[in-house]
Write a structure and sequence with these properties.
170 residues; 6 helices; 4 strands; 38% helix; 6% strand
C-alpha cells in the first residue's frame, strides 16, 4: 500500500505540538472528519482493525485522513484467525475475549480517540500495555473523565466505548 506523505504528521504529533492551541470547535471538526472517514471505510464493508491516533494523518489541521489500512479486512470475511491487532488501549474488550473484529470494534477505538483529543494524553499512557491492562479493560476499565467538554461529547464517548458492542453507535 502506498500512502501520501502528510507533512503535519499524525494525530499524536498534532496533539503534542498544539494541544493548548486547539479549541473545541477545531476538536469537534476533526472528530467529525475522522468519523466521516470511518463511515466511508465502513460503507465499503471494511473494518480498519487498528484505528488509533498514530494512524490518523494531517496535511491540513482540520482535514485528518485515516491511514494504515494494512491489516483491515472485509466485514464479510468469515475468519480472523483469532489474532489480535492493534494497540491495547484502543482495542475493544471483545477482541481480547476472542471475538471477531467488527465495525463496532472500530467505534470503540474512535471513542478512545475522542478521549485523547479531549485530554491531550493517550489512553492509559501511565500503564504498561500488558496482560494486566487487557484484563482491566475487559473488566470495564476506561480512562477517567477529567475535563470539561461540550454537551453530549462525554455521553457519546462513553457510548462508543461501551463494553457491549451492540450498544455502541453505528
Amino acid at each position: 500500500i502506498i500512502m501520501p506523505y502528510y507533512s503535519k504528521g499524525d494525530l499524536i504529533r498534532y496533539i503534542s505540538n498544539n494541544f493548548y492551541n486547539i479549541n473545541w470547535v477545531s476538536k469537534l471538526i476533526n472528530l467529525k472528519n475522522i468519523a466521516n472517514g470511518l463511515i466511508n471505510i465502513h460503507n465499503l464493508d471494511i473494518i480498519h482493525r487498528d484505528l488509533h491516533s498514530g494512524n490518523i494523518f494531517f496535511e491540513n489541521p482540520i482535514y485528518p485522513h485515516i491511514g494504515d489500512l494494512g491489516i483491515s479486512k472485509s466485514a464479510t470475511e468469515s475468519t480472523d484467525n483469532n489474532e489480535n491487532y492493534g494497540i491495547i488501549p484502543y482495542m475493544a474488550p471483545e477482541i481480547f475475549q476472542g471475538r471477531k473484529y467488527t465495525k463496532a470494534s472500530d467505534i470503540y477505538s474512535f471513542g478512545m480517540i475522542m478521549w485523547e483529543l479531549m485530554t491531550g494524553r493517550r489512553p492509559f499512557w501511565d500503564r504498561n500495555h500488558d496482560t494486566y491492562l487487557i484484563i482491566d479493560i475487559s473488566d470495564g476499565l476506561r480512562p477517567p473523565i477529567v475535563t470539561y467538554a461540550p454537551e453530549g461529547f462525554i455521553e457519546l464517548m462513553i457510548e462508543c466505548w461501551d463494553s457491549n458492542p451492540d450498544k455502541r453507535p453505528t
